[in-house]
């Protein structure tokens, strides 16, 4: 309990060492806790890492009243529930996109078209320059806002905007018009 208070006081004072101590003390236990909800070890680790990054950048340590540990577990619980909700929405969107009608003879053809579009998009994404690909992945596939992606990557928001414009231009030239419009539709549907 005393160590928890020392870490919390250090966090409230902006100490990077306190943040490192917090990470070291709680990371493994929080991953186990997140895995209890997510049922995917790798995803649980990613969620906890993102949780710590958000915790550091938002610096909401002064709001902690009922103890650091209970705050961490309660916040991570909410983060996991949000993740599960988002995953469910994504699955529903994919299901809705692939099954527009009841079983019809054209469903197989439609699924093959979707798979072809996916492969085309996947190949186009891997041809993007590295920073461009990182920014596009964070903003479009992980639903980060431009400012969040800029903070996460340690770059300016203008660089994020430039890289997103560059990504869209490259993808527009690499994809057929239907695939590119579907990509835009998915981006702005979120």
From TrEMBL:
UniProt xrefs under Gene3D superfamilies: 1.10.1740.10, Winged helix-like DNA-binding domain superfamily/Winged helix DNA-binding domain (1.10.10.10)
Residues annotated as domain RNA polymerase sigma-70 region: 22-89
Keywords: Sigma factor, Transcription, Transcription regulation
One GO process term, biological-process aspect: DNA-templated transcription initiation
Domain RNA polymerase sigma factor 70 region 4 type: 119-169
Presence of the UniProt keyword Disulfide bond in the record: no
Pfam families: Sigma70_r2 (PF04542), Sigma70_r4_2 (PF08281)
Molecular function terms, GO-annotated: DNA binding; sigma factor activity
KW Transmembrane (keyword) present: no
Similarity comment: Belongs to the sigma-70 factor family. ECF subfamily.
Stated name of the protein: RNA polymerase sigma-70 factor
Species annotation: Odoribacter splanchnicus
């Amino acid at each position: 309990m005393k160590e928890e208070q020392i870490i919390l006081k250090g966090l409230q004072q902006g100490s990077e060492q306190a943040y490192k101590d917090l990470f070291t003390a709680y990371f493994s236990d929080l991953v186990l806790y997140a895995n209890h909800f997510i049922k995917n070890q790798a995803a649980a680790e990613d969620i906890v890492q993102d949780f710590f990054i958000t915790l550091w950048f938002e610096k909401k340590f002064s709001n902690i009243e009922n103890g650091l540990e209970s705050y961490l577990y309660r916040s991570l619980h909410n983060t996991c529930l949000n993740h599960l909700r988002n995953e469910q929405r994504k699955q529903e969107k994919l299901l809705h996109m692939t099954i527009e009608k009841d079983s019809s003879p054209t469903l197989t053809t439609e699924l093959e078209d979707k798979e072809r579009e996916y492969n085309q998009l996947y190949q186009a994404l891997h041809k993007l320059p590295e920073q461009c690909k990182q920014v596009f992945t964070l903003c479009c596939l992980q639903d980060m806002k431009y400012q969040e992606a800029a903070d996460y990557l340690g770059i300016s928001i203008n660089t994020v905007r430039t890289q997103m414009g560059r990504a869209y231009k490259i993808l527009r030239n690499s994809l057929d018009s239907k695939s590119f419009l579907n990509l835009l539709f998915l981006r702005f549907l979120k």
